[in-house]
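Good day; I would like, with your permission, to put a structural problem before you. I would ask you to consider whether the tokens describe a fold that such a sequence might reasonably adopt. The full record is reproduced below for your convenience:
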Amino acid sequence: MQVIESIEALQGWVGREIGASDWMTIDQERVNTFADATADHQWIHVDVERAKRESPFGAPIAHGFLTLSLLPQLTSQIKRIEGVTTTVNYGLDKVRFIAPVPVGSRVRARQKLEAVEPRGDNRYMLRNTVTIEIENGDKPACIAESLSLIIF
């Protein structure tokens, strides 16, 4: 984990990759739980036997939004900014699902800081490009431009 001591030090990271998270296994239980939480029970995610038979991927795959929902957990392993009292998810400017995540594979996040914009009262908007990689994959699963408001 990268520990960043101040807002000035954080600004020195603009345009650079901060780091990568640990690998996380995407198992069928996680996919099924996500399907239950979102009422998205499409067979390509939850019907293992049918997915093996009929899916172009030969196995069930994780929901794209499940992959996206991992951003907070994975990126929290990459950096810590000293003195920040609150971090607020401000949204996403662009999201692309590049490659499917087969159940049983491992993913991790890489984070590049694109911008730090002052928002007054010890508040700053961070713009990051987060890439979710699939272990041994040719393409990333997802690339997202995420926004976070940090408050000191």
Remarks:
- Helices lie at 7-11, 28-38, 43-46, 48-54, 64-69, 71-75.
